[in-house]
Write a structure and sequence with these properties.
By secondary structure, the chain is α/β, with parallel strands linked by helices. It is built from ten helices and 15 strands. The N terminus and C terminus are likely disordered.
Length: 376
């Protein structure tokens, strides 16, 4: 997670060129968005649909009441139920589809648009790995494009949605856990489960050992893409590979020796709740704009403070409806108004405010020199 540390040095203005002014902020244009969401939407595959979580092979299928993200079962205590406990009310939509790979994310996002998500979870990638063969896996380039397309669509539909992206689980650990179990080997073979990883499960031949390592590396590469792409969005948080690094034990896997059991879904909820946004944080960040005169223009420098940490800032002109993420100081004409808001590491968004560059003949009496340190 990127952290922005802000400081201000104050002094007297002694020159006309290079002088800096922080103009008083105008009225709040948009209200702050802080604290718990009221609408949750989960995107993903059979893991989020809690396929066969109860282990009842007589009724094979999705068991969404046990979903780590949106389930209602007290045995799991899903992320949604934790929000309900804290707020008393929340609306949840499970838009995941069993069997879906990352290419389906855009479709899931558009299908769930009426839900108006304020908080979205994404857990997808197992089906990009688990194919009939190693060669059939989704390429890293395509996977990155697909998650980018999905996040672009999601943030276009809901610009202020907070997005939590979970890492792809380490399917190699599943193989390690059950490779010596004859029933698991039979089911994997009989139903062609994840043959890219589970083919020849007992083999120690170099070709099979190397294949498994390459498949595992593909998962690592997918997670790198998830981290990098998520970082491009102010309100996106990646789990920092927490799910990938979580240990797998027999009790966490259901009767098909692949999907999470009810206990596994509970473990997912417990772990991922720690990695997601802290909704108990209800303090919005506070932004500041400094204007430094450069001949006939003013250089706008944006900064912000927050008790938990600033994720970034964004700005727009009053005539615009879309926001630009702030990355470096930019020039504006005298008396130009810009609208600014900051976002903290928990996705809390400051109420946007208007700041106006001084006229050229204005002589500020105080210098604000913001310094910004970005911590990856």
């Amino acid at each position: 997670m990127r952290r922005i540390t802000i400081g201000l040095l104050v002094g007297l203005v002694v020159a006309s060129i290079g002088q800096t002014s922080a103009q008083p902020a105008g009225d709040v244009i948009d209200p702050a968005v802080v604290g718990y969401p009221q609408r949750v939407v989960a995107f993903g595959d059979s893991i989020t649909r809690a396929f066969l979580a109860d282990g009842n092979i007589a009724e094979i299928g999705d068991k969404p009441q046990y979903s780590w993200a949106t389930g209602t079962s007290p045995e799991v205590n899903s992320l949604t139920e934790r929000i309900r406990t804290a707020t008393g009310s929340v609306t949840a939509t499970n838009a995941a589809v069993s069997g879906a790979s990352m290419t389906a994310l855009v479709g899931q996002v558009n299908g769930a648009e009426p839900a108006n998500a304020q908080y979205a979870t994404i857990l997808m990638g197992a089906n990009d790995i688990c194919r009939s063969s190693e060669g059939a896996m989704t390429s890293v380039t395509d996977y990155r494009t697909q998650i980018t397309n999905g996040l672009n669509q999601l943030t276009t539909n809901e610009p202020e949605v907070r997005v939590f992206v979970a890492s792809v689980p380490d399917i190699f650990q599943v193989w390690q856990t059950f490779k010596d179990n004859s029933t698991a080997r039979f089911i994997w073979g009989q139903f062609s489960v994840c043959q890219s990883m589970f083919a020849n499960p007992e083999s120690t031949a170099p070709a099979d050992v190397e294949r498994r390592q390459r498949v595992r590396q593909r998962i690592v590469d997918y997670n790198t893409q998830l981290s990098e792409v998520c970082n491009n969005y102010l309100r996106c948080r990646f789990d920092q590979n927490l799910l990938f690094n979580s240990p797998i034990s027999p009790t966490l896997i259901t009767a098909d020796y692949y999907h999470p059991s009810i206990a596994g879904q509970q473990a997912l909820a417990n772990n991922l709740a720690q990695a997601s946004f802290d909704f108990t944080d209800q303090q919005a960040p506070v932004s500041t704009v400094g204007f430094t005169q450069t001949k006939l223009m003013w250089l706008a420098t944006l900064s912000a403070t927050d008790d938990r940490g600033v994720r970034g800032l964004e700005y727009r002109l009053p005539s615009q409806t879309t926001w630009t993420r702030y990355s470096q100081p930019f020039e504006v004409a005298p008396e130009t108004t810009i609208i600014v808001r900051a976002v903290d590491i928990n996705g809390n968004t400051e109420g946007s405010r208007a700041w106006t560059a001084p006229a050229n003949n204005q002589s500020p009496s105080v210098v604000f020199m913001p310094f910004v340190t970005l911590n990856q």
